[in-house]
Design brief:
single chain; 234 residues; mainly alpha; globular; Transport permease protein
């Protein structure tokens, strides 16, 4: 490709423009949301990080059969390495996101709460590693599941409040509470609080996200490890 790694930034930007045109200009889903442009940018950039980790993690074992058959090494290194590659690729993406939310009107104000963002990002990374381990074993066992990852990710996208606020569409408090337990909703909500709105995320949000992150990592590691001897076989 001519633009190469520039697509790491261009793709979420173009996706954001599409979502802005449809949900912001046509459907007016941004009504009542302060700084909808920044809200949308953070949603698209941060969600795609998890979506990419899930996708590459899911295919890491099935795509590395030759390596698995040739060398003896912890098989978990494959999905973990895939997530680490995505994390390194995410560095310029995050920098671009931070610049855009400050430069594109209405401008976000840089506050000391930006220092909390690395904590949110780290918890998201841990969560990503956990679901990558889970998906890697599932897809290695049932190859057809790789075709369902995209459908699941799309459903997850709409269920995470990437380009609209659930408060504007869901009136039932019980349903709203359940929706807000979605780990990606929590990631986006906390990121918007610290980067856009100058708010410190509530303690409950930290607890929920940390629980999802550590729970996913522990479950993913145990689940993946239990299938260690089966990887690479026909």
């Amino acid at each position: 490709m001519i633009l190469g790694n520039a697509w790491l930034v261009l793709k979420p930007v173009l996706d954001g423009l599409v979502y802005f045109a449809i949900f912001g200009l046509i459907l007016k889903s941004g009504r009542g949301i302060d700084n909808f442009v920044g809200y949308l940018l953070i949603g698209v950039f941060m969600f795609q990080f998890t979506a990419r980790c899930l996708s590459v993690g899911a295919s890491s074992v099935s795509g590395g059969r030759t390596l698995i058959r040739s060398f003896l090494f912890p098989r978990a290194a494959l999905p973990v390495a895939a997530v680490l590659r995505e994390t390194l690729s995410m560095v310029p993406v995050v920098v671009s996101m931070l610049v855009l939310v400050v430069v594109v009107p209405p401008h976000a104000e840089v506050t000391w709460r930006w220092l909390l963002f690395p904590g949110v990002f780290t918890l998201q990374l841990v969560f990503n590693a956990g679901i990558a381990l889970l998906a890697a074993r599932l897809v290695a066992r049932v190859r057809d599941l790789s075709n369902l990852i995209g459908f699941f990710t799309r459903f997850w996208l709409y269920g995470s409040g990437v380009f609209f606020s659930f408060d504007s569409f869901v009136s039932d408090p019980t349903v709203l509470a359940v929706v807000k337990l979605n780990p990606m909703y929590v990631v986006l909500d906390m990121t918007r609080d610290v980067l856009l709105y100058g708010r410190t995320p509530e303690a409950g949000s930290w607890v929920v996200l940390a629980s999802w992150a550590l729970g996913a990592l522990l479950l993913g590691f145990v689940f993946f490890w239990r299938g260690e001897e089966t990887y690479g076989r026909e």
